[in-house]
Structure formats: structure tokens, C-alpha cells
Amino acid sequence: MNIKNIIYTALMAMAMSACSNIAEDERLIYVEPATVNRNVLIEDFTGQRCVKCPNATVSIEQIQEAYGSDHVIAVAIHSGRFGFAGNAKYVGLMNDECKDYWSHWFEDSQGQPVAKINRGSATEDFSNWSSIVAEEMKKETTVQITLVNEIDMNSRNLHVTTIVNDPKQQDGKLQLWLVEDGIVALQLQPDGSSKMDYEHNHVFRASINSAWGEALDFNDGYSDHVSNYTIPEGYVIDNCSIVAFVYNDKGVEQVTKKKIEGK
Amino acid sequence: MRYIAIMVALALAGSLFAQEEGGKKVTLSGSVQSDMMIAPQQDKAIGTSEYDNNAFLSNTYVDLMMQSKWVDAGGRFEFNQFPMPGYQDPYNDFKGWGVPNLWVKGKFKKVDVTLGSFYEQFGSGFILRSYEERSLGIDNSLCGAHVAVNPAKGVRIKALSGLQRNYWKLNKSLISGADAEVALDEMIPSMMEHDTHLTFGASWVNKYESADEVVMADVTHKLNLPKFVNAFDIRARLQKGGFAALLEYAQKSQDPNALNSYIYGKGHAEMLSLSYVKSGLSLLAQAKRSENMGFRSIRSTSALSNSSYVNHLPAFTVDQTYSLAALYPYATQTEGEWAYQASAAYKLKGRYAPKFKVNYSLVTGLENARENRNNAEVRGTDGKKSAFFKNGETYYQDLDFMYEQKYNKQFELHAMYMYQQYNKSIIQNEGGNIYSHIFVADGKYKFNKKYTLRGEAQFLYTEHESGNWGFGLLELSVAPYLMFTVSDQIGKCEPESGVYGDLTHYYNFAVTGNYKSHRLQLGYGRTRAGYNCNGGVCRYIPASKGFTVSYNYNF
């Protein structure tokens, strides 16, 4: 701000002091929903002992309702100061991989909830996640992911075939994650109370192809990947899905999610 | 920018030194303060961070001030490039070095004009308080212009405008304001003759911030944000003999921000304070109600940051100095609270007579104010309203009984019992209520002119899972230069929030030397993770271990 602007603004401030009220019917401005040019990944670093986190989950659900859960894919990574690893009495959703992801991106003093949207900057203000998602969604991408998964329900062995198609053959990595919906476990609420029968969805369970994925290796625009993983006992297979995303230094280029299909 | 500021500061210093008017010299004063940690160590048992080998951490401040008959000037150099543990975090951009504070003040007959950095408080600070508090890493000074006028006896008027300091930058919003105080007793001699002092005050503060920022109310609507936020304050202060009363009211216009979930309801605060002092007896009773009075120069500043506050809401809880009494300090809740405080102190007559003090503090929430916190559903509305006189959940209370007595020339004793309720779920977002009984005994014995020994013993009892705590300290003073201190605090370690481990010793050893205006302290030990609070504003301190050096010099 230069001096002239400061003086002008100070005089305007005094003159406008009586005019700063905004009537109730003038507080909201309509924003056109974004055109979906790519899917968006929300890595929601949440915690069962985080009182603000249920409200962040509501925000995610609203975004998914507006754009479709096929286009906005959320993964809840239970971690940080408010993550809970569980004890003899209560189920915890924070595992060692979650802790490693947290340590990679954040300092110990980071508050929660905090999200990385398409691996962009970390953002805590969950009320603004929808505008960030909209901006990411508008960006064009040449990357497409085809995901096929099969599971043997007896042995719990999961076989995942992923085909990444990118005519530009950009450098990047393919990451495969196992997520689970419908986990009933405790969650602190905004009023400080504990809800013991809270339903947790899209919970990060494990990385299938190593913590940071595998490098793309294109042949005429296609990069083929095969992964095998045994789903641990205790995970409800019918509630499990695979999240597959391609990322590089610029962020997440494309993401997709598919339910596990038994044979 | 910082190099230009340094050169201007040096030029100013040089020009002022060259001036002499009527034989009166320019006086130079200042201070150096440096707190250092050398080679901090990782200690997994208490949950410290990892550090590079031979790391050096320091918060260093050098203040200089030059005074003359007509012009004062000053500045501060800060070196916080490698800050002490806890000062730099995702919310507080504390790290950096330079000259963030530079000012010059012209003193004319009835007018003072300050250009550059300045601090100011209107009334109790409900609508404006810019101040520096190094222990919290807070410096929200304004940079601009400040004018103070005494147009007539008993009348004081101030006007100001500037940009607020936010660590190493200035916030892109303009803070302007004016304040007027009229001391009737200075205008009506008979009032002064009857030892009656009556002052009226009124203040106004305006914040201008661009409304271009996108804040979504929902997926398809963004908020229409106000560019101007106005706040007003009126007060009356009466003092007659030993009796004093202060009544104050403040109001803030629509100010949707990150602290109040972007609601459009107005904020207001009310305070009544009564006190009485007479020969050995002092009494205090005060009450304050605040609702939606969090006021920041940047609306989107995280609730976890200590920066960018325009105002300050005083806490009615005592800032305790004994470590276990300060284990669970209260932090003011900006969405709204009722706060009450009553205290009485009495000292019997006589050089070796005892003094007794009792203090009670209570802070409760408002009926529905908590629903305006972290709640996306109220965004864009006026927020949930609360009935004026209805108290909500207890946030904090304590009842302290204190006794102190100097028995003779050699020995004096301080003792305290405190009952405390600390609502950790509200103040730290988890943990339930902690009810504690705290016992303190602090004795000092002077052997002779050279040697004095002070010992402290503290015990905190609670049935909360955080467990009991103990503290012991011995301090030997060797007059006039040296002091040796050893202490140990024992309790359950909390390496992760809400997870309590084994009993852990937090030991500390220190040697302090004083020589004229110099003070040097060398120490080694462990510091427990926790909160350091001052006036209701708190900073999280992570656990640390290592050698510390602290140097102070005043001239």
C-alpha cells in the first residue's frame, strides 16, 4: 500500500463506518460449479481425537455430493497429534504408514484437520476445500487410469492390474492404496463428547505398491502395472476399495477409485 | 528492506548524537536480551523433536532508544533466524532477522507525533491492544502514524493509522482509530479536593481489508465479505479514596473470520470492576462477558496462530508463578465467555506480621457460543445467539489461599493451597475435566549477608489420568553476584497429546551471574511440553532438552 492509498482508505473508513452491515439476503454470491476435467484426490489427515474433524468430513461429503464421489476421491489418513492407534478397549485407525505420511508432510505442531488436495499445499480451512477442489478440477490432464482388481475371498489375496495411459508420457509414479468404508469406532465430536458408534469412511488401510508407489514406465503411451496384496483379517472386504493415483512434482495428475470385486 | 532499515537507524543515531540544544545532551538507552539453546538433544522419552548435531537456537533482541528535548527515536534489531523450540510452527512465521521496529517521535507543546512502529491500547484493550510479549512470541505493533494531543487540562485525544506487524511482514489491511479521554477531576478542582477522580473515555477502531478473498459458504456459494469492520468502546472510571470502579462496554460490527466460523453477528463485551484498598486490606470483584469479540487484521488467520490480533480480551485468571499451579493455564475463548474474579488480601500490622490472600476465578462459556466455533453450518448467518445472563459449561475455575510471612530477619515463608478445575476438552480440544489440589511451600533463609537459601516444594493431586505431579527446588544465592539453582519436576510424560506415559523427571540446573547491568544464566535440563500463558494468550512449548544460555543487559 502506498501513502496516498493509506490516507484515502483511512478517510473512506471513517465515512463508511455506518455502512459496513451486509443484509442477510446479500451475504451469499453464487459460484458456477467447476467443469470436471480431471478427478481430484483429497488426502484428509484426520484423527479420532480431533474435535474439528467431523465437520471437515461433512465438508468432504458436500463436495462429493456436488461433483460426484467418482470425481472427488477422499482418503482419511488417521495421523498426527489427534490420531489414535487404539488400545485394548477401543479400535484405533492410525497405523505406522499413516504416521510415516504425517511425518513426511508435517511438523508435530501441525493442527488438524489438514488436507493436501491433489498433493498441493496443505490447507486447514476445510470450508475452503471446495474452492480448491474446483480449481484443481478445471485443470486439464492427459492421464487416464484403468483399474481392474480381483480378490480370492478364501485366501484374501488381491490382484490389481493398473493401466496408465498418457500420450505425453510424463514422468511420475503410480500409487495404489487400500481404503475401507463403514468402520464403526469412536470419534470425538465438536462439542467435546465421544461418539462410540461413529461411522468412518474411506479410511486409509495400507499402501499396496510401497509407501511412495512405483515409477511409470511408458511404452507407446501405456504403462502397465500388476500388484498383489493379501488383505489382513479384520478388514471387511466388501467395504474395501482401491484408490489409484498418478503423481509427480506438480501434484496429482489423475486419480480413480474402484471397489474390490470378489470371485 | 531490512538493510535500508538498518542504515536509516544508524543515520538517525548519528544525527541525534550530533545535536546539542542549550547544553542538554541526547541520551541513549537500550537493552540486549538473548536466549539461546546450544546443541539441543533429542530425548524420545519426553517427546522432543530431532535436531541437527551442534544446532544453535536463539531468540535475540537489541533495543535502542535516543531521547532529546524535542525528538525521540528508537528501534529494535531481532535475530530469530534459528528460533528457540516452539516459536516457529506452521501458524507463526517467527523465523527471520532484521529491524522490524523503527520509530521517531516529535514532542511539541501539546502534541506528540510518532511515525513508524508504535504500540497502543484503548481502554482495557477490548477493541485495540498492540503490544510485545516475547515469552509468547507476540509483537503486533502498528506501523504508520500516531498523534496524541492534550488540547486542554484533563482532555487527551489520540488518533492513529497503520499496518499491523505480522512477524516479518506487514499485514495488507489498514487499522485506524481514535480515542478520547476526559478526566473531569482535572477540570473541576473541587473534585480533586475531595479526592474524587472521574474519567470518561470513548474509542473507535476501523479495519479495512480487501473483500476479494474467496471464502466458500458451501460448494456453490461464496461469502460477500465486508471491507470495513468497526469497533467502539465507551468507559467510565471512578476513584474516591480507596474505592475504584470501572465500567466498560465495547461492540464490533460484522466481522466474519476464521475464529467465528465466518458468521455475521456483531460482537460485544461488557466489564465491571470494583476494588477497595485501605491500610492493609484490599478487595477486588470483577465480572466480564464477551461474545464474538475476536478481532484480527487478517480475517483468515488460523485460530492456532497468535498473530494479527487487533484487540485483547483480558483473562480474569491469575497468571501463576509456581510451576504446578501454572501446569494448566487458561486461554481466553474468543467465541464467548463469562469471567468472574473475587479476591481479598489482608496484611496484619507489624514488620513480621503475616499476609493472607484468597482469590477465586471462574470462567464459563455462554449458552450457545461454542456452536459458532469450527462449524461450517453457521457460515454466512448471524450465528447462534446466547441469552445474556445464562452461563454455559465451566471452562475454568480456581480457588487459592495464600499465606506469606517474614518471621525474622533471616526467614520468610510463602504457602499456598489451590483448588483448580481445568476443562481440557474446551481449552485443548481433548482430555475432559482435570480437578486438582495443589500445595505449595516456599521458604527462604538468609544465613548471612552473603548466603541465602530458598527452597520450594509443590505437590499436585488429581484423579485425572494425567496423574499427580511433584516439584522441588533449591536456590543458593551468593551475594552479590551468583545464584545456583537445581530443580526437578516429576509427573507422567505426555509425548503425544492425550497419551500419558511413565513417571518422568524434568530436571534443571542453572547458574546465574549478575554484575552491574549484566545478567548471564547458564543452564542444562529438560523442559516439559505444555503451554506458557500470559493474560489469557498462550503459546505451546514443545518438550526440549539441552544447554541454555540467557543474557540480559540494560543501559
Shape of chain A: globular
Overall radius of gyration of chain B: 25 Å
Biggest interface, residues from each chain: A-B, 54 and 57 residues
CATH homologous group name of chain A:
Immunoglobulins
The CATH architecture name of chain A reads: Sandwich
> Which whole number gives the mean pLDDT of chain B?
91
Q: State the CATH topology of chain A.
A: Immunoglobulin-like
Mean pLDDT score of chain A: 90
Give the topology string of chain A: H per helix, E per strand.
HEEHEHEEHEEEEEEEEEE
How many domain units of chain A?
A: 1
SS content category of chain B: mainly beta
Number of helices of chain A: 4
What oligomeric assembly is this protein in? Answer: heterodimer
Number of strand elements of chain B: 32
Give the radius of gyration of chain A.
22 Å
How would you portray this structure in words?
Chain A is of the alpha+beta class. Chain A is 18% helix and 37% strand. Chain A has helices spanning 3-15, 53-67, 96-105, 129-138; strands at residues 28-30, 40-46, 72-78, 114-117, 122-123, 144-152, 157-165, 173-180, 183-188, 194-200, 203-207, 214-215, 222-230, 240-248, 251-259. In chain A, strands 8, 11, 12, 14 and 15 form a five-stranded antiparallel β-sheet that branches. Chain A has a four-stranded mixed β-sheet with strand order 3-2-4-5. With 555 residues, chain B is mainly beta. Helix content of chain B is 5%, strand content 56%. Chain B contains four helices and 32 strands. Chain B has helices spanning 2-17, 184-187, 189-193, 424-427, and strands at residues 27-38, 56-67, 71-80, 96-107, 111-118, 120-121, 129-130, 132-133, 138-139, 142-152, 155-166, 169-183, 196-209, 216-218, 221-223, 228-240, 243-252, 267-278, 281-291, 336-347, 355-366, 391-406, 411-423, 433-446, 451-462, 469-478, 482-492, 503-515, 518-527, 530-534, 537-541, 544-554. Chain B has a 24-stranded antiparallel β-barrel. In chain B, strands 6-7 form a two-stranded antiparallel sheet. In chain B, a hairpin with a 2-residue loop joins strand 28 and strand 29. The model of chain B is unreliable at 13-23 (pLDDT under 50). At the A-B interface, helix 1, strand 1 and helix 2 of A face strand 12, strand 13, strand 14, strand 15 and strand 16 of B. Strand 1 of chain A pairs antiparallel with strand 15 of chain B, so a sheet runs across the interface.
